[in-house]
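Can you make up a protein sequence with its backbone structure tokens?

===
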Amino acid sequence: MIELLASRYTYVLMFVLLGIGIYMVIASENLVKKLIGVNLFQTAIFLFFVSMAYIDADGASAPIVPHHGEPGEVMVASPLPQVIVLTAIVVGIALTAVGLALIIRIYSEYGTLREDTLREVRADE
């Protein structure tokens, strides 16, 4: 069991980040901490995709088919998961920026970032 965990440490790290991210989103009352939790959750998903695309075999190479070999002869890694992760990182950065802008606007309007206080203020309006 220990050998399996040691050889698949990226999956262990992914589950740890996933758990911390979900806990921060659920348990935290502060909106900034919730946004940090969402970012940790996203990072865990990115790590999962990259770990799944990793080929642990002798002779595996970059996804470039050489001119001297047959296309099915050489074992190459699929570039699709890396492309998806790069796109998701860009989308994640944009969503984080929009989330921070909304948090700044909420703080300037209500003077707090605590979710329970915001619910009380909104109920009074």
About this structure: The mean pLDDT is 85. The two ends are 57 Å apart (CA to CA). The chain has one domain: 2-124.
